[in-house]
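User: Predict structure, ligand pyridoxal-5'-phosphate.
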Amino acid sequence: MIKFLDLHAQYLSIKSDIDDAIAKVIANSSFIGGPSVKEFEQAFAEYLGAEFCIGVANGTDAIEIALEALKLPAGSEVIIPGNTFIASSEAVTRSGLRVVFADVDPGNYTLTAETVRAKLTPHTSAIMAVHLYGHPCDMVALKEVADEHGLKILEDCAQAHGATCHGKIVGTLGDIATFSFYPGKNLGAYGDAGAIATGDVNLAKRARMIANHGRVAKYDHEFEGRNSRLDGLQAAILCAKLPNLPGWTERRIAVADRYLVELSDVEGIILPRRANWAKQVYHLFVIRTERRDELSKWLSDKGIETGVHYPIALPKLKAYDHLGQAKEALFVNQADETLLSLPIGEHMSDADVVTVAAAIKSFFG
Ligand SMILES: Cc1ncc(COP(=O)(O)O)c(C=O)c1O
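Assistant: Predicted complex:
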């Protein structure tokens, strides 16, 4: 059996650190706020080299709060890729803004300057750079477009903890950045958790206030915010896990590199192409094949788990019928039936990768 994700194995490898961290929070009863939240915010800011980090309840809230903190004009348009998880676009709509789906590079699945330019209108106010599958967007190119047109950039780093673009870590390359620590993410909590990072003191202050009822002090509320706090137990777990992230990331990259070698001459599949300026952290290793469903069943019958990210491109979802983008000749609208995510993670040995690759080769004969 080769699992898509093995959270239990990961827990066993750091069991005493996790158990101690949880026990400490319970012993202190520091469930909301408290030392573990502060410690994680500082440690994660340091990891990123970001000036400010604000812990929040999950990655979706992080995007909504970041958009609200940016104070974009009501009803203005945010350009986002058509092939991300709905959380990215949902947050735009819920913030009173308009979603505009753009296409992506077919090799690395992220927005490009050209695909963004194709969707610019006088109403565009921001670009959401989703570093999908752990591959960074080309932030230098996107920044050029943003600067030319006076747009803000929000980086959605939910799948890209530690990825770099032209040598610089994502989460520090736009106006504001958001992270998810959903359990299966490269850095995952044991429940929902998220964070916002920024180098702008005013954005940081506003985001922190929005996430905590708009308060400046207990019962002193400058405006109405919401409750979206990172809880103490999750923060302590994230603190215990963070020192392992670089090692886990290197292992993911090694697994991906081995896939790229083992699968290089298989006809019938298209491999992901990492840009030469990118360090991809392979939250997912996604191939394309016209025989996706057959291959996925073939692998499943051999005990190899796979996933599909995402089976319906966002413009084609019922939720976005009103945008009328489902029939646009976009790569994202055509690729969704061919995407297949192979198992990847630090739980995989080289032998596991060879087993998966051999199963794929035997499928294509
Ligand atoms: C690209 C992307 N953005 C946002 C999110 C939302 O994160 P969360 O599940 O923590 O709300 C996810 C998580 O699945 C994601 O993959």
